[in-house]
Amino acid sequence: MSINATLQRVTDRIIERSTATREPYLARMRAAKGKGPNRAHLSCSGQAHAFAAAGPDQASLAIRSAGNLGIITTYNDMLSAHQPFERYPDLIRAAARDVGATAQVAGGVPAMCDGVTQGEAGMELSLFSRDVIAMATGIALSHNVFDAVVYLGVCDKIVPGLVIAAQSFGHLPAVFLPAGPMTSGLENDEKAKVRQKFATGEVGRDALMAAEMAAYHGPGTCTFYGTANTNQMLMEFMGLHLPGSSFVTPNTDLRDALTRHGAQTALGLSALGNTYTPVCDVLDERAFVNGIVGLNATGGSTNLLIHLVAMARAGGIILDWHDFSDLSEVTPLMARVYPNGLADVNHFHAAGGLGYMIGELLEAGLLHPDTNTVAGRGLKHYTHEPKLKDDAVVWEAGTRTSLNDAILRPASAPFQPTGGLKRLGGNLGTAVMKVSAVAPEHHIIEAPTRVFHDQNAVKTAFKAGEFTGDVIVVVRFQGPKANGMPELHSLTPLLSILQGRGHKVALVTDGRMSGASGKVPAAIHVCPEALDGGPISRIRDGDIVRLDATNGTLEVLDIDLDGRASATADLSDNTTGTGRELFEMFRRTSCSADTGATVFGE
After folding, report:
1. pLDDT tens digits for 297-323?
2. What gap in Å lies between CA 527 and CA 554, rounded to an integer?
3. CA-CA distance, 294 to 230, in Å (whole number)?
4. 423 and 325 in contact (C-beta within 8 Å)?
5. Burial of residue 286 (number of CB atoms within 10 Å: 0-12, 13-18, 19+)
6. What is the DSSP string of 493-541?
7. Mind listing the pLDDT tens digit for each residue in 61-75?
8. In whole angstroms, what is the distance from residue 575 CA to residue 121 CA?
9. Buried/exposed 59-72: b ≥16 CB within 10 Å, e otherwise
10. Domains observed in the chain
11. Three-state secondary structure call for residue 470
């Protein structure tokens, strides 16, 4: 099947747009590769420091050159998705020894849970934690004693931060090793119903707590298709996971075998062997286009419209939201996974999962088939699924038919002919919207606005019964420069209640929405943000705003916003407490959401 014309056109323009930044990046990576691993060039004292605590591997590190594997871990006990990583270093070290090599934990980097911090002050650190993770990884790898790296990470800002760092060390091969999703618990739609009942006072906190504990009940990634599981999808589409490894549950024999195999794969890709495959050769423009297609085909998280831009720029590749929107127009929505449907990722995986989807998209000409991956050249490897036979992982051809067409459909008969994301533009600036979970009758909302400067004020107005008709709720001063661009997912239950009462409801914000955002239309990541004097800063209560996801527009009607002064907000409460004072530099230097909302520059 020939490559889709739009796919090729978008790829070509990304390549052209990126020439001035991509070529110097690749030159730096070639220079770093030319110097080779610096382990042997360290002074004897330096080497002794690096190997002093290596125990049985100490002699091998000092006298052999079979390869030393760096481990970057985001293990902590609080994140269910990351708790399984506690066991990984021992598995990886043993796997390295089996092939005559060594492995060392290079460093641990922070990992926070957006589920814990939703609606709390800590959420204002969430987005910037991505850049902290990247910098912390840079410190961990700065000792320059590794031939390849494995990255242990799953959740929202964590994989993007690790990818940014991996690109800075792009001369080194890397394999990303996931932990896998927790086993299925309380169904996601039942959990959502309890949340709505709690918001209206129909049930108490004891019922809410029981439902939440039944949903989030063990080790592994949350099972809805939010940002964490979107990250896992991307790592397969972009070639940094082993094929079919994303959604294998934790602490199983297959999961452990994949971890061991991943460690040995990373070592085999180092410059010491014959199949040298550095990150800079895997993450090219075509790989990012494949990732954007996967994002649209699965109805993935809107957070990746920020993260993919930042990840790409770390490798000199310039993406913009037009690329996402244009690819969405030709990418079929093939999956319905909560919040876009009732199934969770375990059901999706059982129905055929990513292997089936990648095979369908390849056949339709909607993916670049010949990209470099950690499994070898070509995405065809990712149509296979891992099996455990005689304690070894083997890959077999995956299913060519969906095993549940309520969850997963072929590219020729999708849930909708276009992808799950939409770029919006107009006199309010530029925004994005996740349309995959929004019913068609809610794709166009025209209503008067209620304007707020923080999400708590919205909740107060709701509790006071102030929302009695159609409304577009505007929450501004939520951008990266204002307060770190928190997610506003805690508004979802009350907005859903208003929608359920028959009102036309939408959200417009320069902040973010959770990767689990669902049926309420939300124009998010509005740029320019209010603190920069963007048009959103000049909206007033009662202005009529039209959000049109069909035509891709976001406009205030019959008002000349240029004739109004920008509103101001008292942001002093967002500058201290819960560590926020430590991130003043990040707020001051962050670029806009459409350029990645990163401190690493425009």
Report:
1. 999 999 999 999 999 999 999 999 999
2. 12
3. 9
4. yes
5. buried
6. HHHHHHHHTT--EEEEESSB--TT--SS-EEEEEES-GGGT-GGGG--T
7. 777 667 999 999 999
8. 10
9. ebbeeeebbbbbbb
10. 5-183+218-397 (no CATH), 421-574 (3.50.30.80)
11. coil
